[in-house]
TrEMBL record:
It comes from Marinomonas vulgaris. This is Outer membrane protein assembly factor BamE. Belongs to the BamE family. Its main location: membrane. Part of the outer membrane protein assembly complex, which is involved in assembly and insertion of beta-barrel proteins into the outer membrane.
Length: 105
């Protein structure tokens, strides 16, 4: 009798957890937040230092392609209030320290 009451209480206790709302998850953002204004100011012919001043340091500089800079942005558990980047995968290509190509995917 005591065992069955204990099992019944345990089953009801565990089932009650589904009645609560899900826990709050903090939005996690990683990368470079690039705005429309920054993208509008970005122009072919800028130097590496000008791009760094405008956008900050890139998220990724490939070892095998040192002339390609990648500005990446990801978000997990985003809410409507979470700031979003206008460029989630921005690739900039340089030749001799001068910006030659802009790809915004």
């Amino acid at each position: 009798m005591k065992k069955s009451v204990l099992i019944l209480c345990a089953a009801l206790s565990l089932g009650a957890c589904s009645l609560f709302p899900p826990p709050y998850k903090v939005p996690v953002t990683q990368g470079n937040l690039v705005t429309k204004e920054q993208l509008a100011q970005l122009q072919v012919g800028m130097s590496e230092s000008q791009v760094t001043y405008l956008l900050g340091n890139p998220m990724l500089k490939d070892t095998f392609k040192p002339n390609e800079w990648h500005y990446l942005y990801t978000t997990r558990y985003a809410t409507p209030d979470t700031k979003q980047s206008d460029a989630t995968d921005l690739t900039l290509t340089f030749e001799s320290g001068v910006l030659t190509d802009i790809q915004n995917r």
